[in-house]
Amino acid sequence: MSDPQVDQVDQAIHVVQAAKYMLMLCGIAAVVSYPLTNIMISVAQRIGFVDRPDGHHKGHDRAVALGGGLAVFLAAAITFAVEYLSSEKLQQILFEQSPYLGGLLLAGIWIVGVGLVDDRFGMPGKVKLLGQFIAALMVVAAGLQIHSFSVFGFAVHLGVLSVPFTVFWLLGAMNSLNLLDGIDGLATTVGIILCATIAVMALVIGQTAVAIVAAVFVGSLVGFLRFNFPPAKIFLGDAGSMLIGLIVGALAIGGSLKGTATVALAAPMAIWALPMFDSFVAIVRRKLAGRSIYATDRGHLHHRLMALFGNNTRVLAVVAVCCGVTCVGALLSVFMHNDLLALGAVAAVLCMLIATQAFGHIEFKMLLSRIKWLFLAIVRRKGDHVSFQIQGTHQWDKLWQSLVEFGEKMELVDIRLDINFASLQESFHASWSGPTKSDRRERWRTEIPLFADEHVVGKLTVSGGPQLGISSCQAIDQLMDLLEPLEAEVAEMVAASEQAKVATESSQTAPKTESEILAG
Q1: Are 192 and 214 within 8 A, CB to CB?
Q2: Cα 382 vs. chain centroid, distance in angstroms?
Q3: What is the pTM of this model?
Q4: What is the phi/psi pair of residue 419, to 5°?
Q5: What is the reported pLDDT for 233?
């Protein structure tokens, strides 16, 4: 019989040796990534593969090179290829996981290609989702599946649901990182923290191959971060953010496997908590506001934090700390075999964000309001309305109150106003419904888009029923007269914003006075 203490010593020695090897590969990947990224910047600028500001959703003030995702992928692939061909040790480590890792490589190539096409030409959200779905199927077909998972000691066997569950997990991972990539360096920083956590977790569990892959991606992202840190010289683009999501999503599963197919789910969920929460809140916000889930807005975590702190670097620090807390909770849950530690870390971070009104509190109120609305819909006797200032400081309530008074006067069925003025970081949603006995088949409905220059910045939806003494066309005509002040208000906001922008640019380019030079 083997001595347990001797086995523990041997295991510790193996972990230390593997950790040293991982650090070496991480360093090599960083060294490879740095010049590759620099080359990518030059090539992208030369061929015009850049992200230009549009004055609406894209807030950066200059054209920035794209293709960062390709640089990160090439750095990791080159590091692996050179080391694999020259090291029998790495060949032995990767041998058992070669089908799964091979599938992950093919899926990575595919998703980078899809992302580059989207970055260059743009593609509809549903088409991009199809590309992500194909990438997820590649990984699943290569052998990575969640057949069962354990939470708080209870095992759940998925059976025929294992493939859909795994695909859903990978799709969520890709989209959550994609949505989080909104300011310089954010997705890269989060990717480094998540990959580093997975590397440590996988090493402790004994999934050495997964740990090495994660370590190499840490190095690739570190080398890239030098050029992606604010002010960024190159963006990850969808190619990079989806690649990080795919890699981290797949490695989180592979790095938390106990035995052959059971995933200890608490740790991966804690690792992904912040990106997933941002995605969940975005979906809730858009659905409750009547927008498409593919619609873009500036209500994400980083946008809210930017409004609070006003500095890109500070936002990166706050997000890094929040991710760090959940990741430490994930690691402690693995080390101490206690899922409550992971759950507690996640709950602490999310509750802190909501309680301090930094993020998620407005969507939480919207959700509660919608639940109350549905609950009281049957017994409500009079008109009811709710309004939410999702973002910004403009007083939209005055206009909304006039719309409510119009609805009550004209005995309308319901009114919905949704403002998504991304360039000014103004977002407002309100809805009203009045008492009606009309059948749905008797009601009319109209949607009126609100424009600022050539961009749609909002939508007004109105529905009504048969009324005595007035036709639906007459009601709509009076509504259009009511909208004239709103259009004028939007035009004034755009003009004021342009004037402020010109004034800022003039102050930055104006020559310094003698007193300013002496003060400097």
Answers
A1: no
A2: 40
A3: 0.84
A4: -110, 125
A5: 94
